[in-house]
Design goal:
The protein is α/β, with parallel strands linked by helices. The chain contains twelve helices and 13 strands. The structure holds NADPH dihydro-nicotinamide-adenine-dinucleotide phosphate (NDP).
């Protein structure tokens, strides 16, 4: 059978990571021959990472062990696939230049989805520490465009479980919840498994070639006040809202040492300024829930139910 008629073969960098694992699982469940490129497992590898490798092995994922510096090994891996997705951690964002070099050398890749998965960095301007972070992601976008590699850039907005944990501290017995700014700005909280599925779909979708796709389903648009009220409904508890004004966050972004100045700048951008919702999505733009209206989504309410029944371990993104 001609290759075009078969499911595309997908290689994922960062597949053992917080968001990457959902992409690996979605890729397999959607029928794609899937491999990950991961650092060699050794004594320093976390047990959770080793467990994931075992799980991946059991579902037929091919694991290629190597470093990002091993150009020839990456080129050889790329030659055996059609689509490349990177879910590398933020500190490795610029290392993706090595993946770009390898994609150019391999010459066969039909789509590259780099490690974006946050806000639309080409449309917002944030406080300096977050700007510096976004600038690295913009640099990767520009390098991909300049190389003429077919791409999809993903604006996944907030990872829901991650940010519910940051905002509500569900593990914390305290009756106080911090509200950044006035609590009214709208953000978008998308469940991690849905982000994994959307990403595999857009990476394969001809409509998304050389385009940005935003994940902004209407039911997932929510303010901090709405989120806290929903949590109050679910838990039957009542929380005192403790406000951190904008000026305090700006000051913290100027006084905290790096990398601690990055998360406060992100909170400012998303929850005080409302940057995720600061631009309209027009008819011509690609929005995932419009593209895949048939896909069953996990709502923010359902994410809160997960915290009530089977609370996930808190996670924090790497900034260095
Ligand atoms: P992780 O911190 O979970 O790391 C992903 C993978 O990167 C790891 O599993 C590891 O793979 C690889 N990696 C880590 N360190 C190194 C290293 N030194 N050298 C080479 N590879 C390394 O990433 P996240 O899932 O937190 O982040 C992925 C993307 O999502 C980033 O772009 C981040 O900015 C974004 N993000 C977005 C959020 C949102 O709410 N929108 C929240 C958090 C992150 P292995 O061990 O297999 O080699």
């Amino acid at each position: 059978m001609a290759r075009e008629a078969e499911a595309s073969r997908i290689l994922i960098f960062g597949g053992t990571g917080y968001i990457g694992k959902h992409m690996v699982r979605a890729s397999v469940s959607l029928g794609h021959p899937t491999c990950i490129y991961a650092r060699p497992a050794g004594p320093a590898t976390r047990p959770s990472n080793l467990n994931l490798r075992r799980e991946f092995h059991s579902i037929g994922v091919h694991i290629i062990e190597g470093e990002l510096e091993e150009h020839e090994k990456i080129v050889a891996a790329l030659k055996k696939v059609d689509i490349v997705i990177s879910a590398l951690a933020y500190p490795q964002v610029l290392d993706q230049l090595k993946i770009i070099d390898a994609i150019i050398a391999a010459g066969n890749i039909k789509r590259f989805v780099p490690s974006d998965f946050g806000c639309e960095e080409d449309k917002i301007k944030a406080l300096p520490p977050f700007e510096e972070f976004l600038e690295k992601k913009r640099k990767i976008r520009r390098a991909i465009e300049a190389a003429g590699i077919p791409f999809t850039f993903v604006t996944a907005n907030c990872f829901a479980t991650y940010f519910v944990d940051v905002l509500l501290h569900p593990h914390d017995p305290s009756d106080e919840i911090v509200v950044y700014g006035n609590g009214e700005a709208k953000a978008v909280l998308n469940y991690e498994e849905d982000i994994g599925k959307y990403t595999i779909k857009v990476a394969n979708d001809p409509r998304a070639c050389n385009r940005v796709v935003t994940y902004r389903p209407e039911p997932n648009i929510i303010s901090q006040h709405q989120l806290i009220s929903l949590w109050e409904e679910k838990t039957g508890r009542s929380f005192k809202r403790v406000y951190v004004p904008e000026e305090d966050l700006v000051k913290l972004s100027q006084t905290l040492p790096p990398p601690e100045n990055i998360p406060v700048s992100i909170l400012h951008s998303i929850f005080v300024k409302g940057d995720l919702m600061s631009y309209e999505i027009i008819e011509d733009d690609l929005e995932a829930s419009r593209m895949y209206a048939e896909m069953q989504l996990t709502t923010v309410g359902q994410v809160l139910d997960i915290f009530l029944t089977d609370p996930p371990e808190p996670a924090r993104a790497a900034f260095v």
